[in-house]
Amino acid sequence: MSGTLVLVRHGQSDWNLKNLFTGWKDPDLTPLGIQEAETGGQALADTGIKFDIAFTSDLKRAQNTLKIVLGKLGQPDLETIRDQALNERDYGDLSGLNKDDARAKWGEEQVHIWRRSYDVPPPGGESLRDTGARVWPYYLTEILPRVLRGEKVLVAAHGNSLRSLVMVLDKLTKEEILGVNLATGVPMVYVLNADSTVASKDVLGDMSGAH
Ligand SMILES: O=C(O)[C@H](O)COP(=O)(O)O
């Protein structure tokens, strides 16, 4: 039996718009973010999928994205589990700083390494590996068993918490994950084999503009 796992990054948040490192801070969606969630939700609805359960983080930009997507799906009351294991990477001391100011202070390359490398943590924060060390066990114990039972599972979370999952699902190396950016509000539809490997991946939207 194979199930379906859909991952969606939240729509644009207020701090995405202001170009601030966000991490575990809790800004809400912007009007554009709401629109992105609606577009992603509609793309999912157009596939005819109906979900058995949803997961999201402890942060409102992901929770509100999920709410909008579920509205588009006609499943506003779907059982939803919230857990901080799915929260964004903790950006530590960078949280709240402007990304361009950080580049001016520490240099383009250092900031890129903090943002996209696998194992270099930002000061006082989590590397992607640290993020994966909490996301992956949660996925294995709470999410994957349901998918393997044939359920359709929706996960609304964050750029880096989802990158840590995508890295493993897509079997990406430390070098390859450096170039992966997830667009806001674009659903990724994975069908898994019974042995938990990926049978197919379908991206419902445009990832090319993500940075
Ligand atoms: O936490 C943040 O600032 C964003 O959600 C993701 O940021 P990044 O694209 O710099 O990793």
From TrEMBL:
Cross-referenced SUPFAM superfamilies: Phosphoglycerate mutase-like
What EC class is this? isomerase
Any keyword Isomerase?
yes
| Catalytic machinery residues | H10, E88
Q: Does the keyword Metal-binding apply?
A: no
Q: Where are the transmembrane segments?
A: none
- Identify the InterPro entries for this entry: His_Pase_superF_clade-1, His_PPase_superfam, PG/BPGM_mutase_AS, Phosphogly_mut1
Q: Name one GO molecular function term.
A: phosphoglycerate mutase activity
Keywords annotated in UniProt? Gluconeogenesis, Glycolysis, Isomerase
So where does substrate get bound?
A: 9-16, 22-23, 61, 88-91, 99, 115-116, 159-160
Q: In which pathway does it act?
A: Carbohydrate degradation; glycolysis; pyruvate from D-glyceraldehyde 3-phosphate: step 3/5
Q: Which Pfam families match?
A: His_Phos_1
Q: Which GO terms describe its biological process?
A: gluconeogenesis; glycolytic process
Highest taxon, organism lineage: Bacteria
Where along the sequence do coiled-coil regions lie?
none
E.C. numbers: 5.4.2.11
Quaternary structure, from the entry? Homodimer.
Q: What NCBIfam families does the annotation carry? A: pgm_1, PRK01295.1
In the record, the note on similarity to other proteins reads: Belongs to the phosphoglycerate mutase family. BPG-dependent PGAM subfamily.
Biological role stated in the UniProt entry? Catalyzes the interconversion of 2-phosphoglycerate and 3-phosphoglycerate.
Q: In its UniProt entry, what is this protein called? A: 2,3-bisphosphoglycerate-dependent phosphoglycerate mutase
Q: What organism does the record attribute this protein to?
A: Aliirhizobium smilacinae
Gene name as annotated: gpmA
